[in-house]
Write a structure and sequence with these properties.
Elements lengths: L1 E2 L2 E2 L3 E6 L2 E6 L15 H21 L4 E5 L3 E3 L3 E8 L12 E7 L5 E7 L6 E7 L4 E8 L1 H6 L3 E8 L3 H4 L5 H10 L13 H4 L20 H20 L4
Parallel strand pairs: 6-12
Antiparallel strand pairs: 1-2, 3-4, 5-7, 7-10, 8-9, 8-11, 9-10, 11-12
């Protein structure tokens, strides 16, 4: 908004202490009564503005900050970014060299996670984790102001096994072609099956046999060998009274 004094903002929303603040640089909202049906724009603006101020005081006044992960669900091996915004006893942005949190997976013993301050963002801390175990993960930030009031600053997220095969169910033709070429083969679509037989290299060989083949079983001595083996078996069974 431009005036003789210079430019000034029309609308500013922010926080002071534990509550929200709202500034209006104009006084013409009464004209909105003539817009819309039954002054719907006028009513909506002021109802939401009052709700913003009241809820900000009631919610923020009961906690000393928040912590959240960038997603609610991760797969093993993925990177997890955790961001926390903390306040001190006077509800001002917490200034500290670090913030500590307890990460617990299921019923296992919690481990300590260190959150480092973010530059140019007072009261904001951040940490990067690697999803190693599956299950429900709970992250609770510990601050002196929150523990003194019994307040809890925590968040939770899930870690599951990788599901690349079940998520990507479409045909990856470029990858199949690459695998075929690497192994010395060739990729065929289903409408190219008639070309498959012609693409198979001819590995037939011709062997020249100049003499008549003599099968091993078609010799006179083989009969005597078989009869001899049967006779030996009969004698052994007879001697040792075997069935």
């Amino acid at each position: 908004l431009r005036s003789v004094e210079g430019s000034r903002p029309l609308h500013v929303a922010g926080r002071y202490g534990s509550g929200h603040t709202l500034y209006l640089g104009f006084n013409g909202t009464r004209r909105w009564r003539r817009a819309g049906r039954q002054a719907e724009f006028f009513d909506k603006f002021w109802i939401q503005s009052v709700r913003y101020l009241v809820e900000g005081r009631s919610l923020e006044g009961r906690r000393r900050g928040y912590v959240q992960a960038d997603r609610d669900r991760y797969e093993v091996g993925e990177r997890i970014t955790v961001t926390s915004r903390l306040q001190d006893a006077a509800y001002n942005p917490l200034v500290a060299p670090k913030a500590e949190a307890a990460l617990q997976v299921g019923s296992e013993s919690p481990e300590t996670v260190v959150l480092m301050p973010v530059s140019n963002q007072p009261g904001t801390f951040e940490a990067t984790l690697i999803a190693k175990k599956t299950g429900r993960h709970s992250l609770r930030v510990r601050t002196a102001a929150a523990e003194a009031e019994g307040a809890t600053i925590e968040t939770s997220f899930d870690v599951v096994l990788p599901s690349v095969e079940t998520n990507q169910v479409w045909l990856d033709t470029p990858l199949l072609k690459e695998l075929a070429e690497t192994s010395g083969g060739k990729y065929f679509d289903i409408d190219q099956l008639d070309q498959l037989a012609a693409a198979v290299p001819d590995k037939t060989r011709q062997i020249e046999v100049r003499e008549k083949p003599d099968p091993l079983w078609d010799v006179r001595g083989m009969m005597f060998v078989l009869v001899g083996l049967l006779g030996v078996e009969w004698l052994v069974r007879k001697r040792y009274k075997l069935l």
